[in-house]
Amino acid sequence: FLRDPHWTERILKAADLGPADRVLEIGAGQGALTLPMAEKVEQVVAYEIDPQLAERLRHPNLEVRQTDFLK
């Protein structure tokens, strides 16, 4: 469902994020929520275990840590 921009916008609106916010995201996946979120906040630190998915995520406000968050 996150591929539908309607749902992404609803989630981001509900989160009430602003330009000074910093976000920790666990499991960025393909970035369907991560990248639009990075447009709205100062910084997103995202953990993604899959190296191929982590490599694709690029944005000036995004720091991707390719590792298992639980370890």
What's the quick description here?
This protein has helices spanning 5-15, 34-40, 51-56, and strands spanning 22-26, 43-47, 62-65.
Description:
The chain is α/β, with parallel strands linked by helices and 71 residues long. It is 34% helix and 20% strand. The chain has three helices and three strands; from the N terminus they run αβαβαβ. It has helices at residues 5-15, 34-40, 51-56, and strands at 22-26, 43-47, 62-65. Strands 1-2-3 form a three-stranded parallel beta sheet, with helices on one face. The longest helix is centred in the N-terminal third of the chain and has 11 residues, at 5-15. The termini are far apart. The model has no long low-confidence stretch (mean pLDDT 95).
Poorly predicted regions: none
User: Sheet with the most strands?
Assistant: 3 strands, parallel
What structural category arises from helix and sheet content? alpha/beta
| Assembly annotation | single chain
Fraction of residues in β-strands: 15-25%
Distance linking N and C termini: 28 Å
The string of secondary-structure elements, in order, is HEHEHE
Overall shape: it is: globular
